[in-house]
Write a structure and sequence with these properties.
Layout lengths: L1 H27 L4 E2 L2 H9 L3 E6 L3 E7 H7 L2 H4 L10 E7 L6 H7 L3 E4 L5 H25 L17 E3 L1 H4 L10 H15 L2 H4 L8 E6 L5 H12 L3 E5 L10 H16 L2 E6 L18 H15 L6 E7 L7 H4 L6 E5 L4 H12 L10 H6 L6 H17 L7 H13 L10 H20 L5 E6 L10 E5 L9 H22 L7 H16 L34 H28 L1 H14 L1 E3 H10 L20
Parallel strand pairs: 1-4, 2-5, 7-10, 7-11, 8-9, 9-10
Antiparallel strand pairs: 2-3, 3-4, 6-8, 12-13, 12-14
Length: about 625
């Protein structure tokens, strides 16, 4: 799309230039007919000239047009105006050294006068008018094409930071919930800004920078605004990508201008969002130290060293990729404090839901604690989205209040996608999905450490999900034992095994389950040290996030071929043992599997109460194998 736009700009440029030249020619055109000096003297001697203006290099005047046609030779008459029989002729001729000129003019009683011979107002206008027209037309064309850089060229080195003051920040710590530890850490920054002398009187130094690290949607920007709102100081907000432009040196100039603005507004807070766009480690994927982004980063490092925090200027930055930041940014003396924001726990999620749902008309049956329990791992932005989706659903159905069912539907929509009730499935495929989801649900209920089933559905959702089994965790978990991971493997493989038991073959619907099960088994062997052959060892992994506690993915190329074969063998063994355990459990629960599949075919959705009632009416099944046991004579590991 860039080449057509470039061609259009060139076309407009050419048209504007031609228009300017035409205006110049029109303004500088001469309305006088040029004649020879001898013809001019003939008209004077014949008494046909009315008046003349004698200039240093030219002579101009007026004469009788009819007499000129009769007096002048044929070649001169060709230059005379051809329209009309008579009238006045405006002529001009070059002046030559003629001592008898004045005497001839007086003899013929011609009025004459001297002059500069140059119409300087018209000449000046001939240059100014085309320039004005050209600039106006060019600005109009670029404005119509959406190019906003015309007005920015003058201030291209100026910082684009938006300055907020207390009255338009409108955010305090009361608007931030679910991240109490981070709030407590930043409360000290607020005290620095409010009463700096309390800390400097003992010789202490106010921290220069605070780096806020967290997953997307956890509230990093909101927390920075809350600090400025609590301290009642100006808040200069800018994105890291706004420093880097196509012009060399612009980013460094904007960094200098940003800190100059901050010193004038002190005490204040500088907030750089998405710092990784600016502070990526130097030499990684660039072309050396002359790259524009690296020059901008170097200028930022210099400014961080140069400004005095005791004046009340604190720089805050946010990123969700701290592992790629330049180490020079993270050393003490630049970003002295690093505040990691984790996803909220169940109590934090409940408080966030209360904060966002405070503006809604809630039905008395809404239990935000239950909603918080159904949303493990959700960040603050995710929870705000759920509240909004629930309100929109209630509005679509013309309800007066938002009910628990609206929240449940919003959670399902966010997690699994939009319902596709209009998607037509043939009866055989629908039956396969019913047995698949029934297998997931039964194994989840029969394994002691798994999250219990909240809902089972065979309504297609999203792009590829033909059904889903929703499990409700009873609490947030931070550690997983080997037996718990094995139970999760059983649940993932249960759908595929149920298809095999019911139809004697498997379908492609278990592809996502197999992928997740394989990844889990590989992590158990390669990262958690839960394998029998490899033992308590961790193979080399991809770079992990040191602040967010994220684990990398095992790299096959970073270990020996023998170790890779051992890992693959143990992964296959774990998956085969899980499949055998699930097969044994579902064989003993065949009646329950059939009953649940038929109920799903009839109702499409089964909630927990209906599931428990169904299982209570079925004959009791045999005890399932223990999660840590081996089948077919294999000893327990």
């Amino acid at each position: 799309m860039a080449e057509p736009r470039k061609n259009v700009q060139f076309t407009y440029f050419a048209l504007a230039l031609l228009l300017a030249l035409a205006v110049n020619l029109w303004l500088t055109r001469s309305p006088q007919v040029p004649i020879d000096y001898s013809d001019f003297k003939a008209l004077v001697r014949g008494g046909h000239v009315h008046e003349v203006l004698i200039a240093p290099a030219s002579i101009s005047g007026t004469a009788d047009l009819s007499a000129a046609r009769a007096t002048l030779p044929e070649a001169a008459r060709q230059r005379l105006p051809q329209d009309g029989a008579g009238g006045e002729l405006r002529f001009s001729t070059l002046r030559i050294d003629d001592p008898t000129l004045v005497a001839d003019l007086e003899t013929a009683r011609v009025r004459y006068a001297g002059g500069a011979g140059t119409n300087w107002p018209m000449q000046l206008l001939s240059w100014i008018a085309p320039a004005v027209i050209f600039v106006a037309l060019w600005t109009f064309v670029l404005g119509r094409m959406g190019n906003k850089q015309v007005g920015d060229l003058v201030g291209i080195g100026k910082s684009k930071a938006r300055v907020y003051v207390q009255k338009n920040i409108g955010v305090t710590f009361a608007d931030v919930e679910g991240i109490d530890e981070a709030k407590a850490e930043l409360m000290e920054v607020v005290e620095f800004l409010k009463t700096p002398e309390r800390y400097t009187r003992l010789g202490g130094r106010i921290p220069k920078g605070v780096l806020i690290v967290g997953a997307p949607g956890t509230g990093k920007t909101l927390l920075a605004k809350a600090v400025a709102g609590e301290a009642n100081v100006p808040f200069l907000s800018i994105s890291g990508s706004e420093f880097v432009e196509m012009f060399v040196g612009v980013g460094a100039a904007r960094v200098r201008d940003l800190f100059d603005q901050a010193e004038k507004l002190a005490p204040c807070i500088i907030f750089i969002d998405e710092l990784d766009a600016l502070g990526k480690a130097r030499g990684a994927g660039g072309f050396g130290g002359h790259e524009e982004r690296e020059q901008t980063l170097n200028q930022l490092l210099v400014e961080l060293d140069g400004f005095d925090t005791n004046k009340g200027v604190i720089i805050m930055a946010a990123t969700n990729r701290p592992e790629i930041l330049d180490p020079a940014l993270l050393r003490p003396g630049r970003f002295d404090r690093k505040v990691a924001i984790d996803r909220p726990d169940i109590r934090g999620r409940e408080r966030i839901l209360k904060l966002h749902a405070g503006k809604l008309a809630l039905d008395p049956d809404v239990d935000l604690a239950v909603i918080a329990a159904k949303t493990p791992g959700f960040a603050g932005a995710d929870l705000a989205n759920i509240v909004n989706e629930a309100a929109l659903r209630a509005a679509r159905q013309n309800q007066k209040t938002v009910t628990q069912a609206d929240f449940d539907a919003a959670i399902e929509r966010v997690i699994t996608g939009l319902e596709k009730k209009n998607r037509v499935m043939n009866p055989k495929e629908k039956e396969t999905v019913a047995y698949h989801e029934a297998g997931h649900a039964l194994i989840a209920e029969k394994r002691p450490t798994t999250d219990k089933v909240s809902k089972v559905s065979i309504i297609p959702r999203g792009i590829g999900a033909l059904g889903f089994t929703q499990q409700l965790p009873t609490e947030d978990r931070y550690l997983m034992k080997r037996s718990e991971l094995l139970d999760r493997l059983d649940v993932l493989l249960a759908g595929r095994v149920a298809e095999q038991l019911a139809f004697g073959e498997v379908s492609t619907g278990a592809q996502n389950d197999l992928q997740r099960a394989t990844d889990l088994a590989r992590h158990m062997v390669a990262q958690y040290g839960m394998g029998d052959t490899l033992g308590p060892a961790v193979v080399d992994t991809r770079p992990a996030n040191p602040f967010l506690g994220e684990l990398g993915t095992p790299l096959r190329g970073e270990c020996s071929e023998e170790t890779a074969r051992q890992i693959d063998g143990e992964v296959r063994q774990l998956l085969k043992e899980a499949e055998d355990r699930v097969h044994a459990t579902l064989e003993t629960a065949r009646t329950e599997l059939e009953a649940l599949a038929k109920m799903l075919l009839a109702r499409e959705t089964v909630d927990r109460e209906t599931l428990l009632a169904l299982l209570a009416t079925c004959p009791p099944s045999a005890e399932p194998p223990a999660a840590g046991s081996r089948i077919a004579g294999i000893q327990q590991g």
